[in-house]
């Protein structure tokens, strides 16, 4: 299989071990809420597809649970897959694939699809009615493929860890140093659609044709409006670890030399 991965993610995530070490996990209350919306909380042996699973930050949470889920972890990036395979997680099958091409997964065979990226939770979104990673593949063909693998009436959910310095413009940072870092974050890599730009929602909204006088369904695959929840939590890191975490953001991981702007970024850590 040949996967078409965006160059920003291919280069930005090539140091998969650093990504694994410095990306945070997910708060338990957010996980419980997501699985409840997905209708798999407490369901023994449910088949869950972890889409763009990365190094398995969310996959390992699913694997540890008592429901003995049957998990398919789909990931296009070879380095990420290798890190995930090293964990040898219980009940997990790791597959090469991408959102628009999951040929190894049977149609209507999955109880829930999750796209997790390292807390905002859009869901629940039913297949039959019309849902740090969906923003990378928010396209029509991805929705069609996700719809194909989901069993009728089942649910697609998305979950993100969103630090204040990598959040949408409209979100207010908690601290002054995070506000400074946010300004720097927004000054780089804005030619690529990212979660903070909130463009990913458009692929769902396009399912409806609208005029000033009417709204007509265009055979939507997933229901609108999107459901959303959020959980606020604190993840404490040393100054050095914050810098290492910051460098796992794809738009910074590709920078080199002076362009990395080390001195410019370092000033934000005076807190």
Description:
- With 271 residues, this protein is of the alpha/beta class.
- Helix content is 30%, strand content 17%.
- It has eleven helices and nine strands.
- Strands 3-2-1-4-6 form a five-stranded parallel β-sheet. Strands 5-9 form a two-stranded antiparallel sheet.
- Helix 5 (78-86) links the parallel strand 2 and strand 3 (92-95).
- Helix 2 (16-22) crosses helix 9.
- The chain is globular and about 45 Å long.
- Mean pLDDT is 75; it is low at 4-13, 118-133 and 211-217.
Q: Tell me what portion of residues adopts beta-strand conformation.
A: 15-25%
Q: How large is the radius of gyration?
A: 19 Å
- Counting helices, strands and paired strands, the structural category is alpha/beta
* Strand and helix order: HHHEHEHEEEHEHHEEEHHH
Helix content: 25-40%
Shape: globular
| β-strand number | 9
Question: Largest sheet, described in full?
Answer: 5 strands, parallel
Give me the number of helical elements.
11
Distance between the termini: 48 Å
Element layout with pairings:
Blueprint lengths: L6 H6 L3 H7 L5 H10 L9 E5 L7 H6 L5 E5 L3 H9 L5 E4 L14 E8 L2 E3 L17 H10 E11 L15 H11 L15 H4 L2 E3 L4 E3 L10 E3 L8 H8 L3 H4 L8 H5 L5
Parallel strand pairs: 1-2, 1-4, 2-3, 4-6
Antiparallel strand pairs: 5-9, 7-8
